[in-house]
Amino acid sequence: MKLVYEVAIAEKIRRMKQRVRWQDPLITARGIDQTRFVLDDGKDNEDEFSFLVIGDSGTGKHQGHNPQRQVAKLMLPHQDECRFMLHTGDVVYLVGSSEYYQQNFLKPYREFIVNGDNYHHIAYDNMTFKFPIFPVPGNHDYYDLPLFWSLVSLGTMPIRRLLQSKLDLDVGWHGSRAGEAYAKAFLDYLKSQMMPGDLAHHLDKHYTAKSDSGYCLRYEPGKFTRVPNRYYTFRYGGIDFFALDSNTFNQPAPIPSTREGDLHRLQLETSRQALEQQKQQILDKVNQLNPYNPIDADQLDDSHAQITQIEEIIVDIEKQLAPKQEVAVDIEQLEWLKNQLIESWNNRQVRGRIIFFHHPPYVTEATKWQQAQTLAIRYHLREVFDAVAETIGSLNQNRPLVDLVFNGHAHCLEYLQTQDTGHADSHINWIVCGGSGFSLRRQRPEGVDLMETFTNNESRLVANSKLFLGRNGQGSQRRRPYSSLRVDVKAGDVPKFVVRPLVAEWYQRQWLHPEIEPFIVGGK
Length: 524
What we know:
Blueprint: H1 9-19, H2 25-29, E1 32-39, E2 49-54, H3 67-75, E3 85-87, H4 101-106, E4 133-135, H5 147-154, H6 159-162, H7 180-186, H8 196-206, E5 209-211, E6 214-219, E7 232-236, E8 239-243, H9 259-286, H10 294-321, H11 331-345, E9 352-356, H12 372-392, E10 404-407, E11 413-418, E12 429-433, E13 449-453, E14 459-469, E15 479-489, E16 496-507, E17 510-512, E18 519-522
Parallel strand pairs: 1-6, 2-3, 3-4, 8-9, 9-10, 10-12
Antiparallel strand pairs: 2-15, 5-6, 7-8, 11-12, 11-14, 13-14, 15-16, 16-17, 16-18
Helix pairs in contact: 9-10, 11-12
């Protein structure tokens, strides 16, 4: 039986627009850009700066150990030298419930939050960051419980008991309510400003920053720390950052009504049934394990990873099988990204560009490369990049359109480079930072080279992996390297980025801190 439920893309967009009062007459009359903010820390004009990156972090305990907290502790010594943190999504597992923000976000990151020592008394929708945190929503931040599980949870029976399982699934009594908890935690939730006078006062107080596109929100560390929308941009040290919500352009293409299409649909149905059986077999084995036995505890952690991975594949299959007249795509956001990149390349004050969002277009984690959602994300991003390249012509002087792309979703740390893809996403540096707390995944057995088959049946090398840190080894030699990143941005018209992995490895029931060599991307 399904553990998660997801509303349609059109419904996600509609609800998120309501929450930020998208293009409210009072907002548009003031010339406010609801997709931009200014980080008001007095240092945004310095060419050299550093920032942190995490992703797929929002989990509670792992049968006696807490990798999310270990990663947070690794970042603390860098807090004074870094200016902000990017979060690549899946802030709270398993279904983004507001009930779990206390345990799975406030508690592990308490040093980054104003009055964080008293995190027990801070409401998830009233957080203020003394160290700026800029997130994007992940798929789990949008998930809800299926109606059946919701009714059961309201009856106060924990889902793990109903499943007759010893797995401790962080789901609570409900889900994210289609991203409601995420919006209240991180976005400037203007829906609560119901009266015109309240909204006007709020705009007078917080939308006083000026940018190329008009007035925008002012992000003030320690005072007011909200982002304006589910996708947004900001400029820091001459670098344009673009945050995207990939949950609204990851819909797979419809399966054609042909003989081949019908066969593919049948294969997907068969795969789904096999996965459901596999999931039940894992649950049956779990009941024989003792969580207080160290060896069994590790097996429970592995089982938790397997269950969530299977559930994710089932969701991907169901997206393909869902009846639909046309593919739902967030055209408005993609058009926004295209226009923003064109404007960025036409602005001489900008020396570099970074994009971050949840679903990786390029990845060698065991299950992601062939997922239909991965194909959809890659297709739509290529459309945008190709349109930008055509518009700016030789303006980029053979530089990649963006310097770095950060993603999550795959529970690992990975650095890849695209080759000649035949599109404008060629020769770009891609970093997957999705191993910051939740159960890690292995690299695919096919290896580091990513081959893609194009419409003419030509198979071409489109990317290869330079570094992969994920679950590896077997039995007593199994290693779990959880990670975050520190990125140092260097001065120069063509910026250079020094990327330093910060790793906490769970090995033989103890924490190790292996040194991973920093790598350099960009520059001349």
